[in-house]
Design goal:
This is HTH luxR-type domain-containing protein. It comes from Termitidicoccus mucosus. One of its GO terms (molecular function) is DNA binding. By secondary structure, the protein is α/β, with parallel strands linked by helices. It has two domains: 168 residues, Rossmann fold, CATH 3.40.50; 60 residues, Arc Repressor Mutant, subunit A (Orthogonal Bundle), CATH 1.10.10.10. Helices cover 50% and strands 12% of the residues. It is built from ten helices and seven strands. Helix 2 crosses helix 5, helix 3 packs parallel to helix 4 and helix 4 packs across helix 6. The longest helix has 22 residues. It is elongated. It starts with 13 loop residues before the first strand and ends in a 6-residue tail after the last helix.
Length: 258
């Protein structure tokens, strides 16, 4: 059973202003786009919160927490597949969706929500986070993303943040996205670097393991001069100024463990 704990997050969440997808300043001359943006912000600030989750006990506890800490009226819906049967007089200000383990298919469901209620803000609570899925959901228009292990205070802060037309990401979501970005950047570096041959690979592994040139020469039955030459070529080819750079490359390439 998922739960929202009463603890506080250990680090600050990511709160950012959206840009192209959700412009926050009205264009001049009161254009139709400006009117839609104002209506969207007003709906998020004053409308009800639609809670979409299959687990009844979870919905009941979350509803109580939201009503107590935000004062907003809360509607309930038994899962995304029940949304087509959901009828409301006005679009909800916020649609809070619980996805236990978000999958790529959920992106299409969120896109459907955006088409049905373009003025509503969409928030996600999940048990786990997969960076690529989280990135797709955010790209599709999700304005808030938390884990079910986060506290009630953070949920309240997230709702208030989204109401003010910002995007709220819990620290865990932010960390996961940044780490995924770092890994992809390192893979890009490795793929664009000139390949090394098997002998250079052996030399690199031994350097990364902390062996000195003499030790590497003895282990690979090479002359000291040959090892020094291989080392120089590796540093030049991989763009490293010192041995630490070679070690980092070996870790990124999966030649040794971190």
């Amino acid at each position: 059973m998922p739960c929202i704990s009463s603890g506080n997050p250990r680090q600050a969440p990511a709160i950012v202003r959206p840009t192209a997808a959700f412009p926050t300043q009205a264009p001049p001359n009161d254009s139709p786009e400006a009117a839609r943006n104002r209506e969207s912000r007003d709906a998020a600030r004053t409308g009800a919160i639609l809670l979409v989750a299959r687990y009844r006990l979870f919905r009941a506890g979350l509803r109580l927490a939201i009503e107590r800490h935000t004062g907003a009226p809360v509607l309930e819906c038994d899962g995304l597949d029940a949304l087509p049967r959901q009828t409301t007089e006005t679009p909800p200000g916020i649609v809070l969706v619980y996805l236990r383990r978000p999958a790529a298919s959920d992106t299409a469901n969120i896109a459907g929500l955006r088409r049905r209620w373009p003025q509503s803000r969409i928030m996600i609570i999940s048990e786990t986070v997969h960076p690529s899925v989280a990135h797709s959901l955010i790209k599709e228009g999700v304005r808030g993303y938390l884990l079910d292990q986060n506290g009630v205070d953070e949920l309240r802060q997230a709702i208030e943040t989204v109401r003010q037309d910002y995007v709220y990401l819990s620290p865990e979501i932010t960390t996961s996205l940044l780490e995924d970005k770092r890994v992809h950047e390192e893979q890009d570096i490795i793929q664009t670097t000139q390949p090394i041959n098997s002998r250079e690979r052996d030399i690199l592994i031994h350097i990364a393991e902390g062996l000195r040139n003499k030790e590497i020469a003895a282990r690979l039955h090479l002359s000291l001069k040959s090892v020094e030459t291989y080392r120089y070529r590796l540093m030049k080819r991989l763009g490293c100024d010192h041995a630490a750079g070679l070690v980092r490359y070996a870790i990124r390439a999966g030649l040794i463990g971190p």
